[in-house]
Amino acid sequence: MKEPEKKNINMNLQEQISRIQSMMGMGSKNPFIYDNPKFVEEIENAIEKDGTSFICSFVASAVKMLEGDDVKIYGFSVDKNPDSEFFSDEEGDEGHHFAVMNDRYIIDPWIYNNYQDYESKINFNRSVFDLQNKDDKKIIKYLYGNKNNWVDITNSMKEFKDLFPRTYNELINYHRNII
C-alpha cells in the first residue's frame, strides 16, 4: 500500500471514531458548552436524581464520560496546594476534582453556581477556564492553585455510568442534542 493511501485510511478511521464518539454523546470538542447554565443544571440533575450530592468528583466524571479521551481528571488536596485560595477554608486532605480538556481547558461545572465573593453573593457563572488565556490566569490560580500540585486521577475515578446507572443515558442524550 502506498504512503498516501495509508494516510487516507488513518484519516478515515479517525473520522469514523470521531463520528461514533459524537453519536454516543462523547467528544463535543467545544468546552464552552459547559458555560450554559441549563447544561450545568442537567449535570446536577443527573447526579441528584440518583440520590447523591452534587460533588466535584461526580461532576468531573460526567465531563469525562461526555467528552471521552480528550479529558483528564485532576485533583488536589488543599494542604498540598496552598495557592488555591478559594478552597483555603477546607481542612486537611480536603480538596477539589475537575476536568481538563486537551490539556488546555479546565471544565468545572461544579464551580458554576458557587460564590466567587460570599459577601456580595456574586456567582462565578462560568465553568470553563482557558489555561492559555492570560486573562484567566488570575482566576485559575485563585481556584486551582499551582498546576504542579495537581494530580492526574483519571485512571482511579469510577466511570459516571457506573456511579449513576439510572440517569447517565439522560445526560448523554441531552449532551448529544446540544452539540
What is the topological layout?
Layout: H1 3-23, H2 37-48, H3 56-67, E1 71-77, E2 95-101, E3 105-107, E4 115-117, E5 122-123, E6 128-130, H4 137-144, E7 151-152, H5 160-163, H6 168-178
Antiparallel strand pairs: 1-2, 1-7, 2-3, 3-6, 4-5
Helix pairs in contact: 2-6
Task: Provide a compact summary of the structure.
The protein has 179 residues and is of the alpha+beta class. It has helices spanning 3-23, 37-48, 56-67, 137-144, 160-163, 168-178; strands at 71-77, 95-101, 105-107, 115-117, 122-123, 128-130, 151-152.
Structure write-up:
This protein has 179 residues and is α+β, with helices and mostly antiparallel strands. It has one domain (3-178). The protein has six helices and seven strands, in the order αααββββββαβαα. The strands form two sheets. Strands 6-3-2-1-7 form a five-stranded antiparallel sheet, with helices on both faces. It has a two-stranded antiparallel ribbon with strand order 4-5. Strand 2 (95-101) and strand 3 form a beta hairpin. Helix 2 (37-48) packs antiparallel against helix 6.
